[in-house]
Amino acid sequence: MCGIAGIFAYSPVNQSLYDALTVLQHRGQDAAGIVTQKDGDFFLRKSNGFVKDVFRTRHMTRLAGNMGIAHVRYPTAGTSSSAESQPFYVNSPYGIVLAHNGNLTNADGLSKSLYQSDLRHTNTTSDSEVLLNVFAHELQVQGKLKPTQDDIFAAVTGVHNRCRGAYAVIAMISGYGIVAFRDTFGIRPCVYGERQNADGKMEYMFASESVALDSIGFKLVRELAPGEAIYVDNDGKLHSKVCAKFATLRPCIFEHVYFARPDSIIDGISVYKARLRMGEKLADKIMRLRPDHNIDVVMPIPDTSRTSAIELATRMGIKYREGFIKNRYIGRTFIMPGQQMRKKSVKQKLNPIGLEFKGKNVLLVDDSIVRGTTCREIIQMARDAGAANVYFASAAPAVRYPNVYGIDMPTAEELIAHGKTVEEIQKEIGCDWLIYQDLDDLIDCVRVEGNEAQEFDCSVFNGEYITGDVDAAYFAKLEKIRSDSNKKKSPLEDASYSGMMEIHNDNSTE
């Protein structure tokens, strides 16, 4: 999972892009990058780390220009080398930089065709670099010295024809403008907004979530449609077209469960309201299955589950309490690389308030259970704090299958629910009873009458992969590269990637 942003404006965009990345930090904590453009030249800064640590004053002052794109990264596979931080750059045909959120399920085949047929070479294991080169090649075959919007839309059509999987993309073409496009199922989110500057000119912004627009004064217009591309040319004119022959909206439902901020609007759906409804549905299920429950208090696992937990407690007429205090200087444990780091971070991240637990029957509410590391540690912390009984509720169904569309739910064996019954999971995490949200209820929580999004990618819950190209062979390959034991630092640690670069069209660096 990653966060992307792009801005076309009539004043410097470096600070606005930085501010957008800080708002999108929850989508990626491994690396950050910004590229701006001025007079046909690109200015790049990217490196591993949090946004606040990657950019210093000296970097910001060199990010010149009124147009730019930005990225925060959380790797799902391969290495966490700074060489794989984004945005990526190619100098042919026009000089293109690209930022991508998602995962290409046919990246290996594309990489081979790029080398053998397109005569292009990639330098990293990132599928984002593959996608960039596919887009660049499709633009090159248009054969124009100066591409028009039709040429750019034709190139995006070429990407849709060749690429499989999930991708929300923002790219910048030196001297020509900025383009954003979304995969044919709209799996990963991408919105665009606009604002008028002091001179009455319209400025445009693209981002993974609407909160990034809100934070810097852009008004949300709408989500990009599946298969759609929106191009803002160098004169500030906006052009849009659905570039896919067949497109249907099937966004990732896990955005609403965990990844997105509650104050975001995704595909016209309020994440906050969806999570409220998750609490209501979960409360109804508990009262239906355990009408004689003896729950004294409901507590959230901070922070994502708080909205659902509050609504659950209200609907059941049970006291709601904050039982854990969160250290906000520790990253999101679910997206930390490596099981040992996740396990260590739980106790650094959360500390119980003993008086809220002592002698009480406590219902802990979490947004989901993936590997089981966090909830197992937290349940033991609740017992150590004096809880009489510890019950556990998940606002999402059991995560039983790997995610292949850009979320780090890697191999089936690393998912605690894979191949297990609820009773077996309950025993493994150590709670007195465990209850999951039903999938039909979760879908009802996200579905809004009259909204275009009526069906969702629920593959992590039901094993149905909507792109239709995921099989046993793909999972076998995925296991080799995505398991914690195989994630490592790459020997390719090029200092130029973690430093400051000025990229000219002849590919020289400064």
SSE map:
Layout: E1 3-8, H1 14-23, E2 31-38, E3 41-48, H2 51-54, H3 57-62, E4 67-73, E5 88-90, E6 96-104, H4 107-116, H5 127-140, H6 149-162, E7 165-173, E8 177-182, E9 191-196, E10 202-207, H7 210-215, E11 219-223, E12 228-233, E13 238-242, H8 254-259, E14 265-266, E15 269-270, H9 271-289, E16 297-300, H10 306-316, E17 319-320, E18 324-326, H11 339-349, E19 350-352, H12 354-357, E20 361-366, H13 373-384, E21 389-394, H14 422-429, E22 433-436, H15 439-446, H16 459-462, H17 472-482, H18 495-498, E23 500-503
Parallel strand pairs: 16-17, 16-20, 20-21, 21-22
Antiparallel strand pairs: 1-4, 1-10, 2-3, 2-4, 3-23, 5-6, 6-7, 7-8, 8-12, 9-10, 9-11, 12-13, 14-15, 18-19
